[in-house]
Prior knowledge:
Layout: E1 9-16, H1 20-31, E2 36-39, E3 56-57, H2 62-66, H3 73-84, H4 90-114, E4 119-121, E5 141-144, E6 147-148, E7 167-168, E8 172-173, H5 178-183, H6 189-205, E9 214-215, H7 217-231, E10 236-237, E11 240-247, E12 256-263, E13 266-278, H8 287-293, E14 301-302, H9 311-318, E15 323-324, E16 332-341, E17 347-351, E18 363-365, H10 379-390, E19 398-403, H11 404-410, H12 423-427, E20 432-434, H13 437-444, H14 448-464, H15 476-481, E21 500-512, E22 515-516, E23 523-525, E24 531-537, H16 557-571, H17 587-595
Parallel strand pairs: 1-2, 1-13, 2-10, 13-24, 14-21
Antiparallel strand pairs: 3-5, 4-5, 6-9, 7-8, 11-12, 12-13, 15-22, 16-17, 16-21, 18-19, 19-21, 20-21, 23-24
Helix pairs in contact: 1-7, 1-16, 3-4, 4-16, 13-14
Amino acid sequence: MAQETAWDAEVDLLVAGAGPGGMAAALVGAMEGLDVMVCEKSGQIGGTAATSAGTLWIPGNTQSRRAGYDDSPEKAETYMDALVGGAPGESRGRDLRGVYLATGPTAIDYYDTKTDVTFLACGRHPDYKPNMAGAAITGRAIVPAPFDGRLLGEDFRLVRPPIGEFMIFGGMMVGKDDIPRLIGRFRSVANFAHAARLLLRYLSDRVKHPRGTRIVMGNALVARLFYSLRKRKVPVRLDTAIRAILREDGRADGRVVGAVLDSAGRTLRVRARKGVVLATGGFAHNKEFRSAFMPQPTPVHSLACDSDTGDGLTLARGIGARIDGEGHRGGAFWTPVSVTRKAAGWKGLFPHLSLDRAKPGLIAVNAAGRRFVNEGASYHDFVEAMFESHRTVPTMPAWLVCDAAFVAKYGLGVVHPGTTNLKPHEASGYLTTAPTLEELARKIGVDAAGLADSVRRHNGFALTGSDLDFGKGDTELNRFNGDPGHGPNPCLKPIETAPFVAVAVWPAEIACSAGLATDVDGQVLDENGRVIGGLYACGNDMASVMAGTYPGPGTTLGPALVFAYRVAMHAAGRSDAAGGLGAGRDAGAERAAAAR
């Protein structure tokens, strides 16, 4: 595109996208003295992260070490090497991972001490491949501190809310730690007091606000970033999309010097003296990229924000940037979801992350009625097993099968624990019940003999406490999400009391792994591996350092905030202070220099 001679605005750093990656890059840039502008395609901030659990995977983080949990980036590097293995492009990928692990604690300390984006240690939260060398049970996961949305005033309405299935009473957020205290509110004075405080706060909030203002998880993360930007008077232009990237003098090899924005129908040419940051959320709703990078048949469901249509990747590719899809396995990070149904035909998605699959008394089966996975595996590994099973037996959807007693005790998807009347959920089409396993198989369309045999075999394992087929309950992760009060295996219990229940689950991505190739400072690379000066990427627009694997909780948000930090420090001329290998150079060059 020819260089425009007139500018409607000039800044140091222009950030496209107000998700966590984009807002973090803008925040660090502003803290380092840059004049920053954020443009966001949608009418709210937060992107997909606003609906997430908000966990960050940061090995060796200060918050956990301070709480007494020992860990180091070096141990995590051993784990990542074992997990990723010899994937294509592994040399550069290992360099990026090394920089990520080395920079992570420094970046988080920067946010935690200099801004309102503060974090808490999770304590025990196992890595998702706990039996691999270098894996940890504690110390790597952190979460944002809860946030009081009232601090944002009227701007609280600009924070994208969580999915409805993650709120109760139509607008009250609850964290994972709140759930057992709410369920057991009549079991102790402490539980009752906690539940009462939450409810009274929520009722007070609804007088002035569209939802509760005590916000947790990913919603707290994006709200804290937004609040920090507001305090530093960084402009965030909503309903403003990036439409073109401008290069110096219009040359194909020129440095990126700005961008064309579409702001409510008005075209704006914005000069960016230090660079343009692409953080538009990845390609989740771009049919071309889904077909190119995801497994076939291409999954139809996505938990990503509707506005994540691959804008950053499309524009960068148009000026010669390389999209890195090689070695990213299924091209995304996955979770099984069930389809919820509301009034007037509205449908939603409930992610089956950790609350039901590992509990005792549930199995997952394919169309042959056969188990195909350790049900307590991570959500990402569960879906990868769905893809593998689907090669030979229809497994999209798969079916979670249990009995009504299980649902009453643990819940199932959107059905809360304590529910005994399943008729409304069956009438809506969310789940299926039957008095016998044979009738259940007929209703859901799976092989009756196969299902009966799978349940019989599972029930035998439950009695002995050992799952000889898939090892459910054998790993720390399984047991962490199981029922510690149930024995001999906290993840196994017979399925034997009618009525029997099934809910369909489908694969859906929570984030993209394939994305723009970058160096260690988030500078976008062209097809020949050369830096495109002035163009950066972070968040889901950047190809993930995890290469389609899922080491532990926070696999997407950890890199988003760490590389946002590196991007901004590089744009500010401070990459030497960012920490980690490379200090603004390719880590491979570091090793070569050391060898000399």
